[in-house]
Amino acid sequence: MEFSALLRSQLAFFKPFVNGCSLATTRAGQDKLGELITLTRRTKVTYRKHHFSGFCAEWITPRQLTRRGVILYLHGGGYVAGNLEYAKGFGTVLAERYGIRVFCPAYRLAPEFPFPAAVEDACESFEYLLNCGFLPQEILLAGESAGGGLIFSLCLARKGQHKSLPAGILAISPWSDLTASGTSYIENKEKDPSMSLERLNFYANCYTKDRTNPLVSPLFGDLTGLPPCRIFVGGDEIMLDDARLLHQKLLDSNVDSKLTVSEGMWHGYLLYGIRETKPDFEQIGTWLGKVLFYHGTKTSVDETR
Q1: Most buried residue, 48, 51, 111, 196, by CB count within 10 Å?
Q2: Can you spell out the DSSP letters for 43-84?
Q3: How far, in Å, CA of 131 to CA of 133, rounded?
Q4: Which DSSP letter does residue 217 get?
Q5: Which tens digits make up the pLDDT trace of 179-201?
């Protein structure tokens, strides 16, 4: 049995247990996943913490720094899980693979800190990067699951304040519609090996009382003027339509968007490093080089602020 098939079967086996476990267990399991992702790459990057008043973050710098600019990576976890160790997991992958700095905030989590805490922390992180000397067109947003929705919420929040937007948006299995209006929630119910509507409803109830707020569900926002977007999603996800409907609305809003649906794949499949993801990572690398462009004289970057 190939590793991807074995992994899928393991996800499906543990799905009933995960859906019924406590929030504390969910958080512990997710953090352990982040640690495992970094295991083979941690010697190829350096880490340095940055402390905000209400949350902390981590700079991840590849030892072979080949690109200018920075990726602001916002982790997933249903807005209720994911500490700095989890955020560092895929953040490390991005930094090492693409030779670029990555900044990973461990934004505040619900239910202790419900909406709009995550959006506020994301906005504060973006402003921090600007204060470090990065230009908006040198900042790429990336996120998976809840983080994939949060990067759009960040853009909508900045747009509403008439502030500058980043160079591009990389969304992996974005949770863009907390109302679960897409038909894939029904069509893929039995095929999805890892996620259930019951679990997502629990997360959503922890996070917000208004699931239709565009800063909660960016699918319902005004997406005009957003930067170029690349969206990746598994074909067997119940959240498939969160990506498909978001992509279509971006196109209808005259935003440059491309959607990749990986048939037979599950939620957040890119994080698992399986062989089938190689073409996706190659696409991301090519696209990243196109959207991160520079104008004029670059100011010096100060990561110590």
Answers
A1: 196
A2: GGEEEEEEE-SS-EEEEEEESS----SEEEEE--STTT---H
A3: 5
A4: S
A5: 999 999 999 999 999 899 999 99
Q: Is the pLDDT of residue 293 over 70?
A: no
Which segments of 78-177 are extended strands (E)? Answer: 101-106, 139-144, 168-172
Strands 229-234 and 139-144 turn out to be: unpaired
Q: Enter the tokens of residue 115.
A: 């909406």
- What pLDDT sits at residue 296? 35
CATH homologous superfamily of domain 3-291?
Alpha/Beta hydrolase fold, catalytic domain (3.40.50.1820)
Domain residue ranges of the chain, discontinuous segments joined by +: 3-291
- For 218-271, how does the pLDDT look when each residue is reduced to its tens digit (9 = 90+)? 999 999 999 999 999 999 999 999 999 999 999 999 999 999 999 999 999 999
Backbone phi, psi, residue 261, to 5°: -105, 115
